[in-house]
Every structure is written in C-alpha cells, then in structure tokens.
Amino acid sequence: MYDAILSTIGETKSEDSVLFIIMTDGLENVSVEATRDDVFKAIEEKKKEGWSFVFLGADQDAWAASGSIGIDQGSTMSFASARTGETFNTLCVATHCHVHRGVENVSDFFTNPEFVNADEGDRKIKK
Question: 62 with 39: CB under 8 angstroms?
C-alpha cells in the first residue's frame, strides 16, 4: 500500500488542488520501496500545497491506519466490504460537497455540515 500511495503522489502533476482518495481492503504488508514515514512526509508536504486526502478502509480500523500516515479522522471512513455500494454513494456525496465548497485541504471530508445522517448510516446532501 505504501509503495502505491507514494508512487501515485509522485506521478500526480497538478497546479490545481488535488483530492487524493485511498481505498483499501487491507493493511500495509508488501511495500518494498516506501515506508510509513515516507508516506507520512509526502502527505504532509502535499497537504501544505492544498491537496486533500481521504482514506476508506474495508473491514479494518481505518482510523488507526489513516492516522498513521497523516490523514485526518474526519476524512476517514471504515466500511464493511459487504456495503461497498453504500460506501461509494457516501463518497460521491462527500466529493460533491467538497468540490462545491471550494475548500482546499479539508480535514472533515465525511463530517462536514452539508451532510445529514439518513437511515442505515447513509448520508445525503442537506437541502
């Protein structure tokens, strides 16, 4: 996972803000090029440049995994792999809110005030 994150950060060229979404069904276990510290430093550097980072972790403690690489709790979501469809719906709404707020480098991607909780833990845009 660390190799993939670090190489994608390195290959992403943009003069605009970037929304960088990490989605995983497991923990780091096979990287050979990058360490946790490498990824943490790269994320911190890009956050200073206005990038926003989001972490979605299936069937794990996503907050521990994301926090260890510098991603804020409000921009982290843990989900059951059986509910991947609902997870993508939530991600879609959160992305819509993020883009239309015009805010860079948010730390509350999934907890912003444009959301209201709906049944079954899904989220909808506030009218």
Answer: no
